[in-house]
Amino acid sequence: MGNIVNYNSMFSPTPDPDIYSDAHFEKLEREYLRAKAKKDDNELYKIVSRLRYRIQRALRNSSEDNSQFQNLGNFTNYTPKPILAISSFEPSELTKKYWELDADLEKDELRLAEKFKKQDFKYSGDIEKLKALFEKIKQFFRPHTKENNFIHIFSAIPQYEEWEPLQWDESNRLLAYFLNAMCNRPNALISKEWQSIAGNGSFFLNKRGKALKTLDLAKAISDVRIISPQPKNFEIIDNALKPFQKK
After folding, report:
1. Are 108 and 44 in contact (CB under 8 A)?
2. 161 touches 9 (CB < 8 A)
3. Residue 41 and residue 116: Cα distance in Å, rounded?
4. DSSP 168
5. Quick check: 72 and 56 in contact, CB under 8 A?
6. Which is nearest to 56 in space by CA: 28, 88, 31, 82?
7. Is it the case that residue 103 has pLDDT exceeding 70?
8. Which of the 8 DSSP states describes residue 210?
9. Taking the complete model, does pTM exceed 0.70, yes or no?
10. Which residues pair with 168 in a beta bridge?
């Protein structure tokens, strides 16, 4: 199981304890098998590494596996078969199932990472400024929105962490204005492909909780350019982005 992701990112949000429950694992496994059967790579992209993270965490915390994980940190270079070859350790059937499923997940993860390698915003700014930006515009998101989730979506590939879409509580036009303003500047902060990145990744929900797709965002930015070049509250966005102006 060669390529292991470091899940202890400083941007990882504080998780809900329920995500480590058996019920949550079973739900993720069902979603994974369903998406795989339907050959739905967009769904697999959102599920694979979350499920793999859950499996690896279970293995690390398993009392029967504790001795196998000494000094291995975040599963870096974790190779169970060579360890077993020189050990009397006999894994349980559940552990064997986890290893087999993890091997399948790794293959899917590597394939999807290649397919969706452009699926991140490629944020190029300072992380502290990104935190400050969230403070200035968090009024536009639902109250439960966490800073770490916002930062991770903009600064890393979200498939590698437990994450949830950001629910925007204002007009789609204002969201499009905000994302466009982040790339439409001399020192672009995110990729100019933000519409397809946000849409394909289902990174944002509208105020009714529906995922905003590429076409939704394309229409919204078209409305900004043609109908309402200054949507309501645009000045708050402009002021929030002032610290990013090129000096």
Report:
1. yes
2. yes
3. 9
4. B
5. no
6. 28
7. yes
8. P
9. no
10. 141
Look-up: residue for tokens 């400050």? Answer: 132
What are the DSSP E strand ranges found in the chain? Answer: 166-167, 204-205
Q: Give the residue carrying structure tokens 């076409």.
A: 215
Which residue is associated with the tokens 């739905």? 40
Residue 197 in tokens: 């990145």
Measure the CA–CA gap between 44 and 35, rounded to whole angstroms.
Answer: 6
Pairing mode of beta strands 166-167, 204-205: parallel
Question: Residue 70 and residue 60: Cα distance in Å, rounded?
Answer: 9
**Which one, of 140, 131, 122, lies nearest residue 196 by Cα?**
122
CA distance 77 to 55: 16
| DSSP class per residue in 108-130 | HHHHHHHHTTT-S----S-HHHH
- Within 10 angstroms of residue 87's Cβ, the number of other Cβ atoms is 11
Give CA separation, 43 vs 93, 159, 202, in Å.
28, 10, 10
Of 75 and 22, the structure prediction assigns the larger pLDDT to: 22
